[in-house]
Amino acid sequence: MLKKIISIKNVGxxxxxxxxxxxxxxxxxxxxxxxxxxxxxICSVLRSLDxxxxxxxxxRKTLGATGNPTIELLxxxxxxxxxxxxxxxxxxxxxxxxxxxxxxxxxxxxxxxxNQKRNLYRVIIGEDGVSLxxxxxxxxxxxxxxxxxxxxxxxxxxxxxxxxxTIDQFLALVMDPNIDAKLAEQERTIEAIxxxxxxxxxxxxxxxxxxDFPETFGAVLARTIDNIADDAEKLITDHLAAHDMAGxxxxxIAEGMEHTEGDTCPFCGQSMMGLSLVAAYRAxxxxxxxxxxxxxxxxxxxxxxxxGEGAIGKLTTLIAQNRVSVEFWKKYCTFDEGLLxxxxxxxxxxxxxxxxxxxxxxxxxxxxxEAITPEAVFDNAKTAYIEIxxxxxxxxxxxxxxxVLIVANKAATSAADLKTAQTALERLKAIKKxxxxxxxxxxxxxxxxxxxxxxxxxxxxTIRTKLDAHxxxxxxxxxxxxxxxxxxxxxGFRIDETKHAHPAGIATSSYRLVIxxxxxxxxxxxxxxxxxxxxxxxxxxDRTTLAMAFFLAHLERDPEKAQKIVxxxxxxxxxxxxRRRQTVHEIKRVGLECAQVIVLSHDVTFLKQVWExxxxxxxxxxxxxxxxxxxxxxxIMDIDRACQGRVASEIDDLMTYDTTGAGKPLDLIKKxxxxxxxxxxxxxxxxxxxxDWLGDIVRKIREGGDEHxxxxxxxxxxxxxxxTATYHHGEDVADVTPEDIDPDELTGFVxxxxxxxNALQA
Length: 762
Fold this sequence. Notes:
Layout: E1 2-11, E2 14-16, E3 28-32, H1 39-51, H2 55-58, E4 70-75, E5 78-82, E6 93-97, H3 99-105, H4 114-158, H5 167-171, H6 179-201, H7 217-222, H8 230-242, H9 249-257, H10 276-284, H11 287-307, H12 309-329, H13 346-366, H14 376-412, H15 418-434, H16 437-488, E7 493-501, E8 508-515, E9 518-521, H17 534-537, H18 540-556, E10 564-569, H19 577-593, E11 596-601, H20 604-611, E12 619-626, E13 632-636, H21 639-642, H22 649-660, H23 665-683, H24 694-704, H25 714-728, H26 743-756
Parallel strand pairs: 3-11, 3-12, 6-10, 10-11
Antiparallel strand pairs: 1-2, 1-4, 4-5, 7-8, 8-9, 12-13
C-alpha cells in the first residue's frame, strides 16, 4: 500500500509536490486534477516504481530544472526513494489503467498493431504464462544470438570450402598425417591427365586455301564494243586527238552524254540536230558502253576481295594458328615441320599481283573502248603467284599427312577423367586446410556453437509446447470474461476467435470483433478506410470500454491481486452515462478485492460518485493544485465542498441529450452553466471563489490575461456564457418556450460544454 507521497521534485509539473499538511493516503484514494496538472506524471512515477524502470522518471524531468528528479514515497513496508538514477527498493506491486496501458496493450491511435498484439498476449496469459513466455523469448533470443555467431563462423569457413562441398562435409574431414605426400602425388597424376586431355581437345592443322586468279581478267582488259561503225569511231578518235584528249576525253564524253536530253546541247544550248559527231557519240556511248564500264569496276572489286588486305589477313591468321598447333603436335607426332610453313613472301606476292591487276583495270576504266595488253611487270607478278600456289599445294599435302597422324594419336589417347582427378585433389587440399591451426579452431567453435544452439532449440520447443498448452487453456476463459465485462458496460459488440501465434518468433494474440452479428478483422494502421476494421467500427468510448474490459479481466485472474495497488487514471474517458456508472461499480468491486485503489480524474463529480461507495474510514480525497511558478502541489481536498452546487447527474443529463435528444431545453441550459462553473471552481480552486458564477469566471480569466491557467478555455467559456445568459438571465425568461430554442444550436453548445468538462472526446 502507498501510504504517502512525501515529495516529487523536478518531475513534470512537480517542481516540489510537498505542501502543508502532507496528507496521508487511504485504501481508497481519490485525486482530482485538471488536465495538464500532473495526473499522468503520478502514473509514470508509480509505473517506474513497479517496473524499476528509471527512464520513465528521467524522461519526465521538469524542463528548465537544474536539479535531478527525486522522489520520496512511504510504502507499507517503509520508505523508498528515487535519487535521479534508480529506486532504492520496492516491495509493492501495482496495476495501472491509463493511456500507457491502453497504448501498450490494446490499441495505439485508432488501430491495433503488432506491438499491442504482443503485449496483449502477456496480459491474457497471466503470471504463469508470462514466466513461460519470458523463458520462451529468452531462449529465442539466445537461439538468434547463436545463429549470428554460427553465421560469423560459417563466413570464415566458407572461404576455404571447395566448390561442391558443403560446410558440414568440410567440418567432417579427418586429419591425414600423410597429406603432403598425397597432394604431391595427385598433382603429378593431374599433370599427366591434363596433357592427355589437351591432346583430345586440341584441333588438327588447317589447310591453306589460296584464291584462284580470275580467268576472265584478260578478257575484260581486251574487251571493246562490237558493231560500232568505222566512220563513227574514226570521227570520235580524230576529234579527241584534235583537242589533245586522247587519254581522258573518252570518259569525259561518256559522262557528258548522261546529261543530254533531246537535241539541245547541255553546254551551249544550241541544237544538235544533224550533227554527225553527236550521232557518233550516241552510237558508241550507249548501254553497251555502260555495261563494259560496270564489268571493269566489278573486276576491280573482285581482285581486291581475293588479293587485298582482308584476304591476306585471314591467311596470315590461319598460318599463325597452324604454327602454334605444329609446336604442340610435334611433341606427340613425328613429322617434318619445315614442310608445313609457306614462304614468308606469300603476302608480298599477293599484294604485288593485286596492285598490278588493279593498275591494268584502272587504265581500262579510263579508256573502255581501248583493248589493254598486260605488260611484263604483271606477267612476272602472276608467275610468282603461280609458283606460290604450287608451294602451298605441297604444304597442304603435308598437312593432310600430319592430320592423319594427329587423328591416330587422339584415338590412342587414354580416356582418363581429369575432372574426377581434380575433385580428388581439391578434397586433399581441403583436408590440409581444414586442419590448419587457425581454421581448425574456427571449425571447433562452429561445432560447439551448433551443439549449443541445438540444445537451446530443444529447450525452446519444450517451453513453447508448455506455453501453447497454457495459452489454449486460458484464452477462451479470458475471452468469456472480456465479453462479460463488455456486456456489463452495455457495449454493442463483443470479441471472438481469440488466438495466438508466433510471428518473428515472438508470441502475439489477436481476436476479431463481432458487431451486429458480423465478424470484423482488427486490421492495422495501414488497413484501407473502406474496409471494416478496429479503427473505423468502434467509437472512442467503445475503444476505452474494450481497454477497461481487458484490464479488469486480467486483474480478476491475477493471483496476487489482494496485494496489488490498483491505479485508475480518468477511467471513464468518452463514456456515456451508463458506462460511467458501471465504471464506478467496477472500481468499488476492485477496492474490495485489492490492497488499495487510487483513482485520478479531472471530474470531481465522478470522484464523488466513487467516494460515496467507499467506506468512510478508508477514503481520502486529494487535489493537484497549480501553484504557478512553484509547480503543482498535492493538497487535501474537501470533496463535498468541491461538488457543492452540482449534482452528479447533470453531466449525465447533458450526455443523454447529446445521445438521444431527451431533456427540457431550458433545464439543459441551466445545467450547462452549473457544469462549467463547477468544473472551473474545482479545477482551479486558487483562482475562483465558491460563489463565482460563469460570468464572474469569464471576467477573471479575461483580466488574468495570458498568465491565467484557464486562459485556453476563455473563448469557449465566453461564447457559452453569452448563449446561456440569453435564456438564463433575460427579463422575459419566463415567457421562453422550447420552441424558441433552436435544437441544433443547443446540441452544439451542449457538446462544447461536455468537451470543456472532459466528459466528451474533443
